[in-house]
Design brief:
alpha+beta, Rossmann fold, 2 domains, about 30% helix
Length: about 170
Amino acid sequence: MATVIEQDGGLTLRHVSKQRYTDDDAPPVLDRIDLSIARGEFVSIVGASGCGKSTLLRLIVGLDADHEGEIDFDGERVVKTDLSRGILFQDHRLFPWLDVAQNVAVALRNAPLSKAEKARAVAEHVALVGLTGYERHYPHQLSGGMAHAYRDCERARQSAAAASAR
């Protein structure tokens, strides 16, 4: 079993386990995971399909609270989603009924910003992924390369939300 080093900031997992939803007799998806990642450290999670990589990430960002063990981020227990943590899904997960700008703006809906500040943040993040001029286009209206950039709007949405939370 790994030794967990306490640290200021960063991410700490202590004895994190996760059971499959469908079968109590199946082996756990995650079994007593211990991990410490310092602020600014870069870590890759590599493993075979179905080994629990995405499950672990969902727990870390607070999308799934049904687990054993403790997950702390910047000294706070992770019990639900928070703008200080984000995840980029393998598929784009953007709303097909919203255009590019509206998808970016979703993350700012409850942000304590004026309409002008939100509009400025949306424009900055659309530009960040190279889609200036396509703000009113929907996913089905974009070319393959543009759709890939559009997927990056998920990152832009998270970045915009994190910036507004500061």
